[in-house]
Protein: NADPH2:quinone reductase
Amino acid sequence: MNSPMTRAVQIDQPGGPEQMRIVQVPVGEPGPGEVRIRHHAIGLNFIDVYQRSGLYPLPMPLRLGMEGAGVIEAVGEGVSHLRVGDRAAYASQPPGSYCDARVMPAMNVCRLPDAIAFEEGAAMMLKGLTAQYLLKHCKPVEGLQPGDFVLFHAAAGGVGLIACQWARALGLQLIGTAGSDEKCELARANGAAHVINYRTEDFAARVKAITGGKGVKVVYDSVGKDTWDASLDCLAPFGLMVTFGNASGPVPPFAPAVLAAKGSIYVTRQTLFSHITSRERTQAMADDLFAVVASGQVKIHVAQRYPLEQVQAAHRSLEARQTIGSTVLIP
Ligand SMILES: NC(=O)c1ccc[n+]([C@@H]2O[C@H](COP(=O)([O-])OP(=O)(O)OC[C@H]3O[C@@H](n4cnc5c(N)ncnc54)[C@H](OP(=O)(O)O)[C@@H]3O)[C@@H](O)[C@H]2O)c1
Structure:
């Protein structure tokens, strides 16, 4: 039997957006624990840039993409939570979602509620599950209570806009940073209690002023190199520094004694993929995300759409800080 073919975005070596090209490959049949999904929309994420550029080294050739939504076409042995014809969405390893259809592990693939459109589903799984674990599981030792201040960088981005709304729903006072006044206003409109344009303002000084000199309980920092030092200055004693990305470049090595000098600070480097290592855990986090979206407390902003064949332009725009909210590729 001839396997159907699919378009897929592949790189043969790490580099710039020009390395990405569309290849035709067989889709294949799902083996045990796998499904075949036909995408209706594909999520674009900053991790795709790290994988493409080689910051996160992976074997070559490499098919990119960690997020998508579509319809289940075939189900392998032992998969009981999905049926042929189900609408589904996922954030999952291994990469390879930039394609029309793929065979992949079923563990992280979740049924998509009817009320959530494919584009939203494709835009919200990796980013929304990240906001979920950040706000619900990355807490200081004393926990987080309504009214507490947290600082969230890149607040108008894909993860950022979800986090702003979810933090508001939890009663937190999220201070959001963003790279333009327009982005700041968008973050504010989506629930940030305070906003700072970190291209024009000293964000550590503003955070101190906003919090009456006390500092925040948690900093959620995905910008990395450019914000690391000043972020530590924003924390209250025993505060938690959550570093979870490197949009401006990786954080350089630092001396632990710095953390003592800044007030016995806790530091953690988190990744979603430590949180979704089982079907049960993935589904529990996804159910929490689906509920907050279904309630209307969190809206998924799909602000940019590109046909799959324009994936190079989509990457250029994300890297140039020209996007807001989420971006999807349409196969
Ligand atoms: N560890 C995890 O589990 C995990 C999971 C998901 C995402 N992440 C991380 O979370 C961040 C957000 O991901 P996303 O996909 O939603 O992307 P995004 O926030 O939509 O885009 C990244 C944003 O970072 C800001 N930024 C600051 N300095 C930058 C620079 N030098 N170059 C490019 N961007 C810069 C830009 O916003 P401004 O113009 O407003 O500064 C840009 O829009 C990324 O760092 C990503 O790696 C981590």
